[in-house]
Amino acid sequence: MTSHNTESTRALQAGEGWRKSSRSANNGNGSDCVEARATGDGFEVRDSKLGMESPRFPLSTNAFGSLLTGIKSGEIA
């Protein structure tokens, strides 16, 4: 995991509740919005448009770091 991902992970761990990705598109219709939050044993991600109705996808800390790396490198779009 890169230091940037470690910083992102720490920021989520320090905060409470869901945080929206700074890379989520802001195109006026609310599409492409992703939120994440720290849990006791890793992280969860969800679609912010669906709010409480969104499925939550649990990820280990390592998997979450890999997800961030893939998104930032363009490997995951």
What report would you give on this structure?
The structure is a single chain. The chain is α+β, with helices and mostly antiparallel strands and 77 residues long. The chain has 2 helices and 4 strands, in the order αββββα. The protein has a 4-stranded antiparallel sheet with strand order 1-2-3-4.
List the uncertain runs. Answer: none
Q: Topology as H/E string?
A: HEEEEH
Mean pLDDT: 78
What portion of residues is helical? 25-40%
The number of distinct structural domains comes to 1
Overall, the morphology is globular
Q: Give the count of helical stretches.
A: 2
The largest pleated sheet is described as: 4 strands, antiparallel
Q: What percentage of amino acids are in beta strands?
A: 15-25%
Going across the major beta sheet, what is the strand order? 1-2-3-4
- Quaternary state, please? single chain
Which structural class fits the helix and strand makeup?
alpha+beta
From the N-terminal CA to the C-terminal CA, the straight-line distance is 19 Å
Radius of gyration: 12 Å
Number of strands: 4
Protein name: DUF397 domain-containing protein
Organism: Glycomyces buryatensis
Biased composition (Polar residues): 1-11
Pfam family, one: DUF397
